[in-house]
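Co-fold these.
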Amino acid sequence: MSSPGTDPGPMPMVRFDKVRKAYGPLVVLDDLDLDIAAGEKVAIIGPSGSGKTTVLRMLMTLERINGGVIWVDGEPLTAMPRNGTLVPADRGHLRRMRGKIGMVFQHFNLFPHMTALKNCMEAPVTVLGLSKDEAAARGRELLEMVGLGGKLDHYPAHLSGGQQQRVAIARALAMRPKVMLFDEVTSALDPELVGEVLNVIRRLGDEHDLTMLMVTHQMGFAKEFADRVCFFHGGQICEQGPPEQIFGAPENERTRQFLRACLEAT
Amino acid sequence: MMFWDWELTAEIWPLLAEASLVTIQATLLGFCLAAALGLLFAIGRMYGPRWLSVPLAGLIEFIRSTPLLIQIFFVYFVFPEFGVVLDAMTAGVLALGVHYATYASEVYRAGLANVPRGQWEASVALNLSPYHTFRDVIIPQAIPPVVPALGNYLVALFKETPLLSAIGVLELMQTAKIVGSDTFRYTEPITLVGLIFLVFSIVAAGLIRYLEHRLNRRVTRP
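Predicted complex below.
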């Protein structure tokens, strides 16, 4: 998959290489370096405004980066090699790269005028070129996997928040991405609905070798699920390591403060 | 001389009924053009590149700020100077359609702007092409809320079709004028035309309300 001449060695699934993001004078991410191996599950935690959601949004090409390069699966995401240098990616390259990534949003963003099944069929039919039957079979299978086999023909408005979010996960999976991004996927849910969504993500982690990147406030879930936890603060990774280290023996004072505040809140 | 001549009424009724078909035809064709072109105007103006959106905004402003009657005359009498010769009906429908397309585009603009940003982001995340994003995600959500406003323009357009009599389209008004000049009686033909317009407007308003109801039931938001 990797392009010759641009790839110096074995590449992680995702690499942020000195990535910079600023809104005018406000620097959101400052020379971010972050490697994520294939199949790795990374939780991103940190106070609001620390740039953690921006990391996911840049990876999904929802935000333009102002410097550096993001590599996905051995290829630059928003740039492409030409004559030995990197030039801004054209539409074709961008769409091919986007196909490797799926995203689940805090507010679900389901298509309200489509049933649960149609939500899962839209992109496979129009983007991947699957037949309606193939896409329906795939959608049905995924909705069953997230426990919604009985809600195929329900519109989002007739589903609970937890159910909507599970449809959104199935919808993203229907595109068979290599990397899945979860952006505070339980933050908009009533507390009693959080568990059903986390269970789906847990199963996904157990049964597939998807690379997963999640921004979360569920510290308990991050601790149990993630291979690595990154604590973001002020547009930088303040501290990262296995969950036992971050939650058990954080080295950075900021991490300690943040975790203490989280603990008090629950 | 009596005020109302029932005999004349019976005599001209078939003529007016036939002319009303022309009026309806002009209305429907004009509105279809306005609805389709208006959507293209709105999309081009909101999401098109600058070389498209800026001139388009100017054109829309220009058409909206000049009288429809002048535009009808322009299409019918001035286009031929540029080698575009249209019969009166075609010229009239074109002028009506383009004129109302500019109003419709403002309505669509409001509808498009009201589609939540998350819908666009989900479309990007699912890798939908711009075409499919508009066709399958954005437009189906943007249009139902603006159906009542579009419907008002359908009725407004309908009521402006008498302007086509100015270029000799044999619609209701033109027919009534001809009857008037033949019989020297205007009371019956003009009154009947007014009544026909009234009936059609009421029917159209009812249909729009029904359609609005249907659409609201189908598109359910969380």
